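Dear Dr. H.,

I hope your travels went smoothly. While you were away I took the liberty of generating a structure for the chain from your last submission, since the lab meeting agenda had it listed for discussion. I wanted you to have the full record in hand beforehand rather than looking at slides cold. The sequence, exactly as received, is reproduced here:
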Amino acid sequence: MATDKCGHPSAKEAMVDIDMKSRSSQPHWYERYVQPCVAELLGSTLFIFIGCLSVVEDAEGTGRLQPALAHGLALGLTIAILGDISGGHFNPAVSLGVWLIGGLNITMLIPYWVSQLCGGMIGAGLAKAVAASERYVNASGGSFSSIVADEQIPSVLVGEIVMTTFLVLAVCMGAINGKTKTPLAPFCIGLTVTVDILAGGGVSGACMNPARAFGPAVVANYWDYHWVYWVGPMVAALLVGVLVRLLIGDRTIRLLLK
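The corresponding predicted structure, in token form, is as follows:
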């Protein structure tokens, strides 16, 4: 090694050492681009499998309690396990909201959506594989069948927008916004889903997640009013993005009045 008269490394060698250290500190391309999508695929599969199965196998007399607890607990646990890898979205509306406030690179938005939708189909398929066929048919495979007439669309759409706003807000403020984020975010997000299902399950089915609607719709081939469960959550994500960016985000997120 070339050194100066005092025995110190030369400037050129010092620069090489710094460059090597900076490279080693950067995550591998697999961890930046592929592993998060794998986590979203796996998490969406597990969450939607539990969600669909809880609806199909809903015990008599429990009403909305069983699906509410199953969805909320499954989501909270999955976020706690996989959240440090991908952020723990498992929901296209959540990914949209997170991207809008700067918590997700735009290059990962479409891959996240694809992973979540594929996970939804796999999870719904696994639920069909293990559920009793009669119960599966009676429950439409865990699809959302709350709307039976066009007159219900406004109330269902508004319900989905409000409930998904609550969910996406819990994610953005509890897990991303620096001023309000908390280590209890997985618990808070899962509890938000439970509360939404208990309160609004009778209104719209409390979907709040296009991947949760898409998976069982594909597997059970049930598409009645399916678009509502895309429009409602995505509109809610846009509303949360505007709300956090303009009004309640911290200085690093807020665009105005910093």
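Two observations you may find useful: The radius of gyration is 22 Å. The chain has a mean pLDDT of 91.

With kind regards,
E. W.
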